[in-house]
Design brief:
This is ABM domain-containing protein. The model has no long low-confidence stretch (mean pLDDT 95). The protein is globular, with a radius of gyration of 13 Å. The protein has a 4-stranded antiparallel sheet with strand order 2-3-1-4. It contains 4 helices and 4 strands. The protein has helices at 18-24, 26-33, 60-73, 78-81, and strands spanning 4-11, 38-45, 50-57, 89-94. It is α+β, with helices and mostly antiparallel strands and 99 residues long. It has a single domain, classed as Alpha-Beta Plaits, CATH 3.30.70.100.
Length: 99
């Protein structure tokens, strides 16, 4: 069962084309698949044009460890430059129900 959910909300930088942003996430997706405890990722564009990026992890410790590694290993990847840095909000939570 999924134990930890990581929710990251943000807006794209001015002038970023959504389809280009999605395509630029390939490197992140491949990196995530190699991280201990990673289960799945979902990326959605919301009605207000913000984005909801959800990752599911086996544990909070594995999610947080991957987050630290991400900032050193992938902080310069193309998709990160497409995100408005002033709009970022990240939180972790324990999953209580999934159907």
């Amino acid at each position: 069962m999924i134990k930890t959910v990581e929710a990251f909300t943000y807006k794209l930088a001015v002038g970023t084309v959504p389809s280009a942003f999605v395509a630029a996430n390939g490197k992140v997706n491949e990196w995530l698949k190699k991280q201990p405890g990673f289960l799945k990722r979902e990326l959605s564009q919301l009605e207000d044009d913000s984005w909801l990026d959800i990752a599911h992890w086996k544990s909070a410790a594995e999610a947080k460890q991957a987050g630290e590694k991400f900032m050193t290993e992938l902080s310069d990847c193309e998709c990160m430059s497409m995100i408005d840095p002033d709009s970022n909000k990240m939180s972790h939570g324990e999953l209580h129900l999934a159907i």
